[in-house]
Write the structure tokens for this entry.
Amino acid sequence: MKLNIKKICCIGAGYVGGPTMAVIADKCPEIQVTLVDLNAERIAAWNSADLGELPIYEPGLSEIIERTRHKNLFFSTQVDKAIEEAEMIFISVNTPTKNYGVGKGMAADLKYIELCARQIARVSKSGKIVVEKSTIPVRTAATIKSILEDAEGGLEFHVLSNPEFLAEGSAISDLIDPDRILIGGESDEAIQALKDIYQRWVNPDKILTTNLWSSELSKLTANAFLAQRVSSINAISELCEKTGANVDEVATAIGMDSRIGSKFLKASVGFGGSCFQKDILNLVYIARTYNLTEVADYWEQVILMNDHQKSRFANHIVNTLFNTVNGKRIAMLGWAFKKDTNDTRESAAIYVADHLLTEMAQLAVYDPKVSASKIYQDIDAISTRSSEENRDLLSVHLNPYEACRGAHAVAILTEWDEFKEIDWQTIKDNMLNPAFLFDGRRLLDRKEMENLGFKYYTLGE
Ligand code: NAD
Ligand code: UGA
């Protein structure tokens, strides 16, 4: 097996595969990196001459693509060819929650992972290092290994687990300066080959090696702990509202304890994103399959708290608007699950919108990076009502002023920086009175908003 890697292939050109391979290509000019995907539209967008058309928005990404694309970074739909040529293959396909059969709504759907393993086994003419980049249940490497072991020709394959810890919106800086790189594996040589790649820009002290199962389980555990912090502070936010405490003050006070730490303690309308919920559900499912009921119940509570936070924010809007929003215009600022991304998967905004639409509100949505078609696609996907009804009740606008004009209330769902810079006086002047402002991100200053004449509510005080 050749361990001085010159050709890498990554299967799955999504939110992880795209930025991760772009950074590897940028840091390792002598390595040829090919990203492949079955989704031809996505690959065409990655190859688009207009960098504004890239399928993913991440600060700093387009500059790296501009430097590396067609030099040592390539995007293609020719999966077999790229697999055959590569010495190291990253699997970075989606691992969504299963929506059918056994484990429906809980377990990770590993069909895409298995298809990749089978394709690698079928196509390979030489041994390869196969790297699990996707987030997968602990012991998935055993499945991949057993499929690869059955490949014809007795080729030598090594499976490594190398979970990705980047957060969307800061993907590039997270990749360039990671807290740690985790590599789990059984072959020292294969581990070293992957280490050699990261060591071009990551301090070796930050590269941690473990056994395969610890690495796989660490990824689910990291996401569970992060999500748990958000649910914990959100639980306290409700208590703050009842007692006169202020959740930011509480967060600062507890965060100064170095054992607790100050990060990830921002109360919000609830965490979203493609991973926290699916990974915790997966963890809960795994625990249940081992009959670890208390362990499963413990982690499930993180999700239940998150669901509660989303619905209590939506309920609060309805209750404050005199218990009915029927026919009332409510402007929603933000649709992405967090700022600096165009990703809307599991965004709290979708669930708040669905709740308000069920109450027959007229929603006027604005998000700086999410298109109208994506917003309609998200709300249609919930299947609560027909797409015609969704289009009757929900409109999408090109700027916040248009969205808020004539509104009974404004709700902030995503913490985009530009929402802080809005001319809130103009917004207020063009709204109906009383002008309600529901801040689901604790983005604005209460005094300032009240001085402008808003009836201001924010979570956690
Ligand atoms: P994504 O849906 O954006 O991208 C996955 C891509 O894989 C899709 O474009 C899909 O078409 C492609 N694909 C699926 N099966 C394929 C196959 N057999 N051959 C070729 N292409 C195939 O997903 P993502 O957000 O990039 O996440 C990928 C994995 O990384 C998931 O397991 C996720 O949990 C994990 N992860 C995601 C993040 C994140 O911030 N999004 C962070 C860390 C880890
Ligand atoms: C998260 C993790 O942070 C990454 O380490 C991990 O790699 C990734 O999931 C994954 O596996 O997919 P991401 O979901 O992109 O990254 O973004 P986060 O910054 O973690 O935010 C997740 C959600 O929690 C967002 O909706 C955000 O608004 C919310 N959040 C976060 C809060 O409400 N409060 C906080 O203090 C922090």
The chain has a mean pLDDT of 97.
